[in-house]
Amino acid sequence: MGSEREMSGKYRVVVVGMGKRGMHHARAFQANGRFEVVGVCDVDASRMDAAAQQFGAAKDSDALRLAKAVKPDVFCFCTLPNLRSEMIRIGIESGARLIAFEKPVALTSREGMQVRKMLAGSKVKAVVSHQHRYGEHYRKVKEIIASGALGRVHTVYGIASGWMMHMLSHLIDYMRWFNGEAPAQWAMAQAAGDGKLSDLHPSPDYLGGFIQFANDVRGVVECGAGAPDVPEVDYWWRKARIGAQGTDGFAEVMTGNGWRAVTKTGASSGGGCMNYDLDMPPYIQDMATWLDDDRNVHPCNFDSAYAGFEIMMGLCRSAADGGQVALPLTEPADEIEILKAYLAGRKVIPSTAANAKEYGLAEKLVGVKS
Ligand SMILES: NC(=O)c1ccc[n+]([C@@H]2O[C@H](COP(=O)([O-])OP(=O)(O)OC[C@H]3O[C@@H](n4cnc5c(N)ncnc54)[C@H](O)[C@@H]3O)[C@@H](O)[C@H]2O)c1
Q: In sequence order, which residues have a C-beta less than 8 Å from that of residue 268 and are 6 or more positions away?
């Protein structure tokens, strides 16, 4: 099939899971000009049929059968987080040169380690979708930090109202990016609330923690019902704030409402809002750039995402077992199971009425401001 690509000059793509994110990916691949969506897969026949028609692509509800028949250059899967290692195996078996998949890397370190082992044992490139990096407001904050305008950076932080398996992977990825991707040495956390442990994105209702990075920068994260409000942002899912503080100032991005900085030269701010239509095209283009030349490693490459994933799993282990968890992790564990055992009966106290509503908690809670 390599010869077919040479004829069309396009990288052939299979997309598995034609839900919200699968469709975002498929549309962005097709619109790019360097890719061609040649196969789509979903266990939901109506979603699959509609996508196959839209892209003029082959379809099959069995990802392995489709991938073996179509032999794509890019195997992309956007299934829910319970499906990871199986899809990675299929991607590798299909002979694809690049696997693109959704955050989180996995639900447990046991599965994350399996994924890493499979990828390391193959030559396939892999990319994980932390595409907020491409937002103009995110890039502005990164630029200010990288310029040295904050002096010596000592702290990076990230907070979000949404729950962990949705949001923490993003927060940690952008904190690591703002901190020059320095390795983490340990993580320590507390958690409360078991309501979202049975969600399709299983999570403690609230997790707050600390990370020590090897360059002596401290990371601080809060994610979930107990996190503070981000009053600058109206849309609940975009209530996220990620930033850095240094000896000469700070800079931060709000996922749903621009950025701001204070440095020695004064205060500045600007716009920008998380937007799939703006973030997906450059995220997809960087896959073509990496496929074209091994030296142009994708900013959202698997190794970078895995370093963030380890931090998230370290925080979970600490929340359940106590103490500081040394990183990188050496032994596998089932973090969601140990959190289930620890969190049973430990109720969360939401910070805001909006959080109370989103977490299905009584709306009139003593001490919670409306
Ligand atoms: N990067 C981001 O900004 C972002 C935003 C939202 C969601 N996500 C992530 O994207 C992933 C998917 O989320 P979504 O909102 O698109 O979910 P979704 O439920 O809309 O889509 C998932 C699709 O996968 C299909 N599916 C399930 N099992 C399958 C199988 N074995 N073979 C083929 N198809 C299968 C489902 O039928 C469904 O259509 C999740 O991991 C989520 O965390 C990322």
A: 260, 261, 262
Residue 362 confidence (pLDDT): 73
Report how far residue 129's alpha carbon sits from residue 22's, in angstroms, rounded to the nearest whole number.
Answer: 11
Cis before 281? omega within 30: no
* Cα 319 to the center of its chain, rounded Å: 21
Pocket test for ligand 1, best of 23, 41, 47, 78 (most atoms within 8 A of CB): 78
- pTM score of the predicted model: 0.95
Cα dihedral value 86, 12, 102, 92, nearest 10: 30
CA-nearest residue, atom 42 of ligand 1: 80
Distance separating alpha carbons of residues 230 and 238, to the nearest angstrom? 9
Residues in the chain: 370
User: What's the gap in Å between 101 CA and the centre of ligand 1?
Assistant: 10
Phi, psi of 132 (to 5 degrees): -60, -25
Please say whether the beta carbons of 311 and 154 come within 8 A.
no
Grouped pLDDT means (10 residues each) for the chain, 370 residues: 59 97 98 97 97 97 96 97 95 97 97 97 96 98 98 98 97 98 98 95 97 98 97 97 98 98 97 97 98 97 98 98 97 97 93 94 56
In angstroms, the CA 180 to CA 266 distance is 24
Written as six digits, the tokens of 100 are 């693109």
Q: Is 239 in the pocket of ligand 1 (CB under 6 A)?
A: no
Which of 21, 131, 199, 242 is the best mutation target for the ligand 1 pocket, counting ligand atoms within 8 Å of the beta carbon and taking the most?
21
What is the rounded (10 degree) CA torsion for 319, 323, 324, 328? Answer: -60
DSSP at 301? B
3 state DSSP class of 203: coil
Sign of CA dihedral 91, 97, 101, 104: positive
